[in-house]
Amino acid sequence: MRVFDLATTPLRELNSALHTVAPGANDTSFEVVNPRGSHSVAVGIDKPVTVEVKGSVGYYCAGMNDGGTITVHGSAGPGVAENMMSGTVVIEGDASQYAGATGRGGLLVIKGNAASRCGISMKGIDIVVHGSIGHMSAFMGQSGHLVVLGDAGDALGDSLYEAKLFVRGTVKSLGADCVQKEMKPKHLKLLAELLEKAGATDVKPEEFKRYGSARKLYNFNIDNADAY
């Protein structure tokens, strides 16, 4: 395992090392100590490397991740795992606003709470939050899944497309075109799989409610033609 101490080593050296791992290399495990809230830690990974960050990070940690496994043993600032393509990002603490924004794939697990706009414009990412999420989460979510074991703030799923939302606790309010939907057996199976991947095996899929798009906001409706 290669260890980078950000108290003495420039962040650029860490990210450069992560970007230059040779295909098929055996030395793919990294440990980052003394992150001290540094921004853009472990961004742009495109190899199946493992990164353990021992402490909290600033904004855009693990952004654009494509195949890496990054665990933050602390909390994360805004934009963690933004535009993630594949791989896994785990935040052991809390995450600030717009966690997983525009994510296209992979799994983001937040063991604590997530602030506002979690999963905004998500495009295929799976996000599991063990705690609660703030307002405007999953705004304009196009695809993927957002699973919340706690509560959700105002305007959940506003202007939602086809992302699927599962909330175990209470939802303060639903956004435009977001409605509660029937939880079918296929959804229970899917949810069970996501909970297992995220290490949330102490809760049952039957405890959740499902939310999705009413499909009225972004489709032309001939009955309303005079209003256009």
UniProtKB/TrEMBL annotation:
Q: Which domain of life is it from?
A: Bacteria
Q: Which CDD domains match?
A: GXGXG (cd00504)
GO molecular function (one): oxidoreductase activity
Question: Which Gene3D superfamilies does the record cross-reference, listed alphabetically?
Answer: Glutamate synthase, alpha subunit, C-terminal domain (2.160.20.60)
Q: Which residues form the Glutamate synthase alpha subunit C-terminal domain?
A: 42-181
Report the SUPFAM superfamilies cross-referenced here.
Alpha subunit of glutamate synthase, C-terminal domain
Pfam families, alphabetized: GXGXG
The record's annotation in InterPro entries points to: Glu_synth_asu_C (IPR002489), Glu_synth_asu_C_sf (IPR036485), Glu_synth_lsu_3 (IPR012061)
Protein name in the entry: Protein GlxC
Which organism was this protein described from? Oryzicola mucosus
